[in-house]
Amino acid sequence: MHRTLSKKAxxxxxxxxxxxxxxxxxxxxAPVLKPGTTSAPGMSGTCTHCxxxxxxxxSKSTVVSHPYVAKGRHRPGHSLKVWGYIAPKLSNxxxxxxxxxxxxxxxxxxxxxxxxATTGTVTAKGKFRHKTNYHATLHLPKGDYRLRAQLVYLDSxxxxxxxxxxxxxxxxxx
Length: 174
Known about the structure:
This protein is α+β, with helices and mostly antiparallel strands. The protein contains 1 helix and 8 strands; from the N terminus they run αββββββββ.
């Protein structure tokens, strides 16, 4: 009787393993396509069997650099000139708005200051070749700050887009 139970257990285990293996293989198998059907996301082009796959739209996203400032000590009340770039180069700069957002460190936390924020100018000329450049001038009192550039522009389909840069930390000395 002991032998019979172990043979049944072995057969049941083998059947369970086969079922699990078939289920796993079906889950990871590539989709079977028929001519004229589109594929899953991420697949593009046409395979060797004339299947038509959906084309992926690869549009370059607009990148705004963090604001750059000149090296050295920055004094309160003086003009602080910031600049940066926008890539890829924008075709229509008249429809763009660039704002330098300012956060001040107050008692260990960063507080957004709407009164210190300023708008910048977007031009084709500047330090960064083959990119759209931006310039702005700030007047900051003494303290620790984080500066960030935010660009609002119209894309090729005339849809308003927003791109925001990373932070630049700066300290204004006495």
